[in-house]
């Protein structure tokens, strides 16, 4: 939010200047501009890839790292201009929205070159729009439960296989220790999404030509009940999400948290931050438990695609770079260097036992996506009506009224392109 | 001789006339760069903004570079939206509360500055200047942390003082509470302007007047009411209008505190326009909101300019 502000002036000035640019391309043939999100690509992998690319094509690659916060506005602006960016990483939930604007190059004819057939089918859903391919899947990651082995042992809690066992374990920590059983911000909407899918519910359904919000439903209400139950074990306020304050680096190192839910790189970041505080912590990982022991909890299959900008200054080279980065050879190296799932099975090496990656492999089959509507991206922008609903319910408002308000807003936004 | 005279007389006349023309033009020439710069920077932007407000303009239109004229649709949508009207009311109440507090506290501080001894005056002046000089985003960030739910200073202080219920008190859980903190922040940074200017103005008032009033047995309140206020009337009027404009368009403080939340309950008009435009990429709607905001400000400004013009007339 703060970063967004630095760039903020009055809306009048901003909108006008955004609209005013877009003339004069600055694309030159011997450099390539690539936008990646912070934390996505490990630096050694990226350096090696770019050096290899430069050697083969004689084109220098200029990587510009972007923050997730406020990314939609920046991508919108960049895609409206000529030659600002050649290749860009797009979050998978946002890809349909940008594909619908025709700002992403159509890659349908390049399927063979890109190795389309080797990709995980589950990740393709977000890269294709109206039967055309607009991006190449790059990596996915899903959430798992991260627990402090020593704290759990001290409380006498064991790794659960069902939701009930999970709650029992948290209760043991609450009763037997002074630790915070679980850190659960009020608006961890990606975790909440998993609970909704566990109930067989969803956030919106197609209705005729458009979409309708389905928050005011028994499924979502049940999911919210379970979320409230977990949240009651946490000291966290009800109006923050996992990113503000950043749970891995700003909350965990400052508190005695026994359990939290996060992504692989967040676990790594938290361990680094804890080490900096002089705390030696041993983390274990387990899948978010399902309602019964024979199933796991649903998870949002988060991840990123790589796309070529329609107005790239250097489109041919952009396609070459994208092909190389998402190829089996480079994805294998990628998988070795990061805890993320690569875009194809062939690239996945052996996973260490008890590692985050192993847990992610188990849960991948329970991965789900948000409604694949171009307007979904509008729902996720601040203020996200689903997050507002979560806070309202946690603060005691009846589900029906909070969900009704949120449904109205969601329906309005998801049908906007 | 006599035939030549007009020529001789005419030469200096022409020169004088040229000189006079130059003198007449000079003010305009001097102000021209400022006007041209304003025209280019503000005028151009404003013109684009009005154009955008008449279009259906979102992410798709921006990227695909299509222009879809929508007439007054955006204005109709804004003006028929309940949220717009409640935000408008909220903006005015917020502004009024802030301006009153700023003027009252600022005036008291200004009077205090006049009364204080040399050393304490220096201390107070420095604290005022520091508050005035504080950049907006850092001070807002500091306030955000002071009132933080988990790690905040205020909650710690309340607990330490023995108040219950401040273990996890969320100061940003309602629009009112959020705007109260915003008020604290804005008043704190705006008081110095009023206080220092009032003090500067008061130093030009001769001490004899006060002395005479005191001899006549006037109370402090009476002195303020019958002497300070009439003498400083232009100052009070102009400062009040300036503060109205400043608070009305206050954006960064409110947005950085809580993003206009919870659930958009602390949004004022500028924040609402920003959320609609930069947040939800509905640039057409955002432009319409900002045009309406601008019109409201123009009305306020017109009073301000009338005051200034009236004063100039009185002085000349």
UniProtKB/TrEMBL annotation, chain A:
Phosphoprotein recorded as keyword: no
Keyword Magnesium: no
Domain of life according to the entry: Bacteria
Entry keywords, A to Z: Signal, Transport
Region of interest: Disordered: 398-417
Annotated signal sequence range: 1-20
SUPFAM superfamilies tied to this protein: Periplasmic binding protein-like II
InterPro entries: SBP
Family classification: Belongs to the bacterial solute-binding protein 1 family.
Protein name (Swiss-Prot/TrEMBL): Extracellular solute-binding protein
Organism: Streptomyces bohaiensis
TrEMBL record, chain B:
Membrane topology value: Multi-pass membrane protein
Gene3D superfamilies recorded: MetI-like
Entry keyword set: Cell membrane, Membrane, Transmembrane, Transmembrane helix, Transport
Domain ABC transmembrane type-1: 88-304
SUPFAM superfamilies documented for this protein: MetI-like (SSF161098)
Membrane-spanning segments: 25-47, 92-114, 126-147, 179-202, 223-248, 283-305
Cellular localization per UniProt: Cell membrane
Domain of life: Bacteria
Coiled-coil regions, chain positions: none
Primary localization class, coarse: membrane
Family membership: Belongs to the binding-protein-dependent transport system permease family.
Protein name per the record: Sugar ABC transporter permease
Species of the source: Streptomyces bohaiensis
Top-level taxonomy: Bacteria, Bacillati, Actinomycetota, Actinomycetes, Kitasatosporales
């Amino acid at each position: 939010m703060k970063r967004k502000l630095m760039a903020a002036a009055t809306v009048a000035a901003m909108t006008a200047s955004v609209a005013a640019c877009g003339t004069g391309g600055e694309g030159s043939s011997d450099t390539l501009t690539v936008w990646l999100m912070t934390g996505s690509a490990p630096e050694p992998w990226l350096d090696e890839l770019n050096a290899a690319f430069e050697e083969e094509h004689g084109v220098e690659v200029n990587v510009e790292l972007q923050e997730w916060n406020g990314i939609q506005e920046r991508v919108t602006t960049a895609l409206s201009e000529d030659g600002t960016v050649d290749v860009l990483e797009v979050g998978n939930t946002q890809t349909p929205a940008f594909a619908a604007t025709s700002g992403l190059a159509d890659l349908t004819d390049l399927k063979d070159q890109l190795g389309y057939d080797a990709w995980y089918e589950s990740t393709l859903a977000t890269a294709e729009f109206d039967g055309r391919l607009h991006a190449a899947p790059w990596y996915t990651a899903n959430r798992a439960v991260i627990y402090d082995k020593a704290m759990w042992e001290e409380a006498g809690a064991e790794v659960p296989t069902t939701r009930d066992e999970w709650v029992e374990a948290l209760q043991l920590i609450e009763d037997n220790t002074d630790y915070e059983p679980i850190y659960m911000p009020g608006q961890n909407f990606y975790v909440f999404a998993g609970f909704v899918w566990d109930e067989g519910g969803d956030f919106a359904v197609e209705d005729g030509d458009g979409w309708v919000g389905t928050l005011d439903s028994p499924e979502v209400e049940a999911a919210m009940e379970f979320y409230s139950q977990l949240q009651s074990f946490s000291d966290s306020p009800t109006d923050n999400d996992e990113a503000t304050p950043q749970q891995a680096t700003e909350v965990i190192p400052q508190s005695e948290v026994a359990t939290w839910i996060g992504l692989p790189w967040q676990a790594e970041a938290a361990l680094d931050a804890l080490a900096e505080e002089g705390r030696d912590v041993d983390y274990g990982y387990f899948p978010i438990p399902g309602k019964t022991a024979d199933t796991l909890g649903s998870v949002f299959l988060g991840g990123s695609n790589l796309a070529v900008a329609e107005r790239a200054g250097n489109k041919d080279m952009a396609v070459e770079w994208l092909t190389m980065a998402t190829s089996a050879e480079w994805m294998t190296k990628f998988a070795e260097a990061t805890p993320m799932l690569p875009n194809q099975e062939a690239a996945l090496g052996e996973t260490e036992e008890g590692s985050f990656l192993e847990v992610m492999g188990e849960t991948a089959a329970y991965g789900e996506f948000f409604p694949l509507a171009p307007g979904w991206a509008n729902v996720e922008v601040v203020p996200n009506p689903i997050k507002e609903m979560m806070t309202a319910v946690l603060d005691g408002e009846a589900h029906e009224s909070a969900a009704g308000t949120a449904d109205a807003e969601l329906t309005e936004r998801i049908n906007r392109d | 001789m006599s035939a030549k005279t007009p020529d001789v007389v005419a030469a200096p006349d022409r020169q004088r006339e040229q000189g006079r023309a130059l003198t007449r033009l000079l003010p305009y020439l001097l102000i021209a760069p400022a006007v041209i710069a304003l025209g280019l920077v503000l005028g151009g932007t404003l013109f684009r903004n009005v154009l955008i407000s008449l279009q259906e303009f979102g992410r798709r239109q921006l990227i695909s570079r299509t222009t879809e004229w929508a007439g007054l649709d955006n204005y109709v949508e804004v003006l028929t939206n309940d949220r717009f009207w409640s935000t408008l009311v909220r903006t005015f109440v917020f502004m009024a509360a802030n301006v009153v507090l700023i003027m009252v506290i600022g005036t008291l501080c200004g009077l205090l500055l006049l009364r204080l001894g040399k050393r304490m005056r220096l201390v107070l002046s420095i604290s005022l200047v520091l508050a005035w000089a504080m950049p907006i985003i850092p001070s807002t960030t500091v306030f955000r942390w002071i009132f933080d739910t988990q790690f905040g200073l205020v909650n710690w202080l309340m607990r330490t003082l023995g108040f219950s219920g401040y273990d996890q008190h969320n100061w940003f859980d309602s629009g009112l509470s959020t705007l109260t903190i915003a008020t604290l922040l804005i008043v704190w940074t705006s008081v110095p302007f009023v206080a220092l200017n009032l003090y500067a103005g008061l130093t030009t008032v001769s001490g004899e007047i006060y002395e005479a009033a005191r001899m006549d047995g006037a109370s402090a309140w009476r002195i303020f009411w019958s002497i300070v206020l009439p003498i400083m009337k232009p100052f009070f009027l102009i400062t009040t209008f300036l503060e109205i404009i400043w608070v009305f368009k206050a954006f960064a403080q409110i947005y950085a505190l809580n993003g206009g939340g919870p659930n958009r309950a602390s949004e004022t008009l500028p924040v609402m326009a920003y959320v609609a435009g930069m947040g939800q990429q509905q640039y057409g709607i955002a432009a319409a909101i900002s045009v309406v905001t601008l019109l409201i400000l123009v009305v306020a400004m017109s009073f301000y300019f009338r005051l200034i013009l009236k004063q100039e007339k009185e002085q000349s």
